[in-house]
């Protein structure tokens, strides 16, 4: 995430009824999606599976992540279509072959820091997060 220039992507574990979902990467570029639900979405990715540079957000002031108004499961695609293309996505996590994020339950996830191999548990509350513990 730290090296994101525009929009980066990676796999997410325990989501969509699968052990993991991920962008499919060939020659360093996203070419498709391994997902349990609607692979035909423009960006078939969970919101925990991407990061957006602050510079991109600031350069697209009208881009909105809609809480209402998107079709179910289309919020991520609706947002990302406003700021990037699939061709511009930056695959992380060893070309999307490692799973750095795992969902545990609603509003909770585990993040594996690839620099230190520390496992961090996060709980999200009302748009904020708190680090609960490291393992």
Automatic annotation (TrEMBL):
Pfam families listed in its UniProt record: Glyco_transf_43 (PF03360)
Q: What is its main location?
A: Golgi
Xref: InterPro entries: Glyco_trans_43, Nucleotide-diphossugar_trans
Tell me what topology the record assigns in the membrane: Single-pass type II membrane protein
Glycosylation (residues): 95
GO MF terms listed in the record are: galactosylgalactosylxylosylprotein 3-beta-glucuronosyltransferase activity; metal ion binding
This protein's pathway reads: Protein modification; protein glycosylation
Q: Which cofactor does it need?
A: Mn(2+)
User: What protein family does this chain belong to?
Assistant: Belongs to the glycosyltransferase 43 family.
Q: What is this protein called?
A: Galactosylgalactosylxylosylprotein 3-beta-glucuronosyltransferase
Q: What is the lineage of its organism?
A: Eukaryota, Metazoa, Chordata, Craniata, Vertebrata
């Amino acid at each position: 995430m730290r090296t994101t220039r525009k929009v980066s992507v990676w796999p997410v574990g325990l989501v969509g009824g699968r052990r993991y979902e991920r962008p499919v990467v060939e020659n360093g570029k996203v070419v498709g999606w391994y997902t349990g639900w609607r692979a035909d979405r423009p960006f078939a990715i969970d919101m925990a599976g991407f990061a957006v540079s602050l510079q991109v957000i600031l350069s697209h002031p009208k881009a909105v992540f809609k809480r209402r108004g998107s079709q179910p499961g289309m919020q991520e695609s609706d947002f990302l279509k406003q700021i990037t293309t699939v061709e511009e996505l930056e695959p992380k996590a060893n070309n999307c072959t490692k799973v750095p994020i795992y969902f545990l339950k609603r509003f909770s996830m585990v993040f594996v820091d690839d620099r230190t191999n520390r496992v961090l548990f996060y709980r999200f509350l009302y748009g904020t997060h708190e680090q609960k513990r490291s393992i």
